[in-house]
Amino acid sequence: MSHLLYLEDFLVGQRFDAGGFSLDAEQIIGFASQYDPQPFHTDEEAAKGSFFGGLAASGWQVACLTMKQMIVAGPKVGGGQIGAGGEIKWPRPTRPGDVLTVSCEVLDVKPSRSKPDRGFVTLRTETKNQNGETVYVFTCQTLVFRRPG
Amino acid sequence: MSHLLYLEDFLVGQRFDAGGFSLDAEQIIGFASQYDPQPFHTDEEAAKGSFFGGLAASGWQVACLTMKQMIVAGPKVGGGQIGAGGEIKWPRPTRPGDVLTVSCEVLDVKPSRSKPDRGFVTLRTETKNQNGETVYVFTCQTLVFRRPG
Hints:
Strand order of the largest sheet of chain A: 1-3-4-5-2
Radius of gyration of chain A: 17 Å
CATH superfamily of chain A: Hotdog Thioesterase
Oligomer: homodimer
CATH topology of chain A: Thiol Ester Dehydrase, Chain A
Mean pLDDT of chain A: 96
Number of helices of chain A: 4
CATH architecture of chain A: Roll
Largest sheet of chain A: 5 strands, antiparallel
Largest interface: A-B, 34 and 34 residues
CATH class of chain A: Alpha Beta
Helix content of chain A: 10-25%
Distance between the termini of chain A: 14 Å
Order of helices and strands of chain A: EHHHHEEEE
Shape of chain A: elongated
């Protein structure tokens, strides 16, 4: 509990590593079959003739697994990681066999004007592949509480 | 195949319904345990003392199930629904028992300057609950091809 972070612990420019994950074809097809059933995410043969030129992970799978990393290995925020929304980008596809690394940076810290117990931290979460190429960026406004008491 | 939509079929202001889905506590806890393991998404008792005041679905679950609806019941885009990124918002939580409806609207249609076979369609996808309240908005830039031939 002593390592929980509150609003006063966040500083612009601060960085956190959040570990990483890998994805194989089976995981890509499994996720996409449930949530994003398009041939370039679910069928290796059909994917060859698509825009992606081969099987690519659903961007939502990358988003979800990045979120998981942020929770299990990222900053431990008192009250939890509560995102109100933000800007999402998938600059390039994630492929079977990719090994991904997640990190985040604090872009802004702003106390709430109306509620003195909380504020907003803008976090830029980035996922890179094994070649150092960015596959996912989520710049999110998160609600963070001040340390209680 | 005759119902596939291409760049020339999209018009600003066009709307598409994409059906809907519902979520119960078991589904909320199951998804969050895998991708967003935070007590307000995974534990009904712990959620009562959280910001959400009760169990709430992970925003990513709402995003993923909305995506699925867009594929299975939304506009059938030739070449698939290929999103480059956009702005995401979760204006309010999704709760166990919620019945959600997905629709989308074309905000912009722009031919590519460099590649004559394609263009960009800005789609605003919105998910509302049974009370007509918006729980999710994704304004996404999508890549859409012109009709071949």
